Amino acid sequence: MPRPPAAAAGVGAGLGAGGAGGGGAGAVGAHAAVDPAAAALAMLQNVPDDAGTQLAELEQQQRALQQQRKGVQIALKAEKRKQSRIMNKAAKSLSDGQLVSIIASRAAAKAKAAAKAGAKATAKGKAKSG
Known about the structure:
This protein has helices spanning 5-9, 36-46, 50-93, 96-129. With 130 residues, it is an all-alpha fold. It is elongated, with a radius of gyration of 40 Å.
């Protein structure tokens, strides 16, 4: 049940602070006791609603990121299936000799790249020590 405005402010109800006002029998002004519920309500009315808005924005951002992640996973799965189909089709159309030559050329390119990287690392080591 709401209190009348006079009672909420502590006027006329005998709710004085009892401090320097002299006995506390209905003191009015800076020493008057304030209803805690009214004080809390006044404080809440002065608080901006940024916290609720920010929370809602972060939740929306989280949902958008989850949808984006799901889309990326679907696209990745589709791309893997596409590459698998292409490789299967290519493997069916190439002869065994062609497949062997492709594998050999890839192995040679890989060995050349590894040798080049090893040479760079050795040259770097010599440059640092010299």
